[in-house]
């Protein structure tokens, strides 16, 4: 087994896996971070979305080796208290139904708001278009992204 140092959720972590291991498996199985979900394994559903160097990325299609010199943030590292504006908006608007896709949806929304602090509906739809919600809570998800933008600005 190879040894890799990953910077995850603000901490250096070490994993011993083959370099071609999907980052998702290292996060879930080696580091115990179960927020990023396995959905499809080919980067099509968005259930695993996490941030890599601040950008939305799909760890199911990234290897551990290519992730070694990056900064990775999973839903667990977003806010220890659950008080990030996106998390607060999700709770306020009761977005989740089954909840399986929600970590990926939230992390994609965080990446969007970091680059576009006041997105319109088209920008929200584009940023989240590859995140599948089988329960169909898309209207609540869009509303929560708009609400998170308000909360981040300090609007009540």
Automatic annotation (TrEMBL):
Alphabetized Gene3D superfamilies for the sequence: 3.10.20.30, [2Fe-2S]-binding domain
CDD domains: fer2 (cd00207)
Transmembrane segments: none
Signal peptide limits: none
2Fe-2S ferredoxin-type domain mapped to chain residues: 2-78
The entry's keywords: 2Fe-2S, Iron, Iron-sulfur, Metal-binding, Oxidoreductase
Gene Ontology MF: a single term: metal ion binding
Domain of life: Bacteria
Cross-referenced SUPFAM superfamilies: 2Fe-2S ferredoxin-like (SSF54292), CO dehydrogenase ISP C-domain like (SSF47741)
InterPro entries according to UniProt: 2Fe-2S-bd, 2Fe-2S-bd_dom_sf, 2Fe-2S_ferredoxin-like_sf, 2Fe-2S_ferredoxin-type, 2Fe2S_fd_BS, Beta-grasp_dom_sf, Diverse_Oxidoreductases
Keyword check for Iron-sulfur: yes
Protein name: (2Fe-2S)-binding protein
């Amino acid at each position: 087994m190879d040894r890799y140092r990953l910077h995850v959720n603000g901490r250096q972590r070490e994993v011993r896996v083959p370099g071609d291991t999907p980052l998702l498996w290292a996060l879930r199985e080696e580091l115990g971070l179960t927020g990023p979900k396995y959905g499809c394994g080919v980067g099509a559903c968005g259930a695993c979305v996490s941030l890599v160097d601040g950008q939305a990325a799909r760890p199911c299609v990234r290897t551990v080796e290519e992730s070694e010199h990056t900064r990775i943030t999973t839903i667990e590292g977003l806010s220890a208290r659950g008080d990030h504006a996106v998390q607060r908006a999700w709770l306020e608007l009761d977005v989740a139904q089954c909840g399986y896709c929600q970590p990926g949806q939230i992390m994609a929304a965080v990446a969007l708001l970091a680059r576009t602090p006041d997105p319109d509906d088209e920008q929200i739809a584009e940023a989240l278009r590859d995140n599948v919600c089988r329960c169909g809570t898309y209207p609540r998800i869009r509303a929560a992204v708009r609400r998170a933008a308000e909360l981040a600005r300090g609007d009540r």
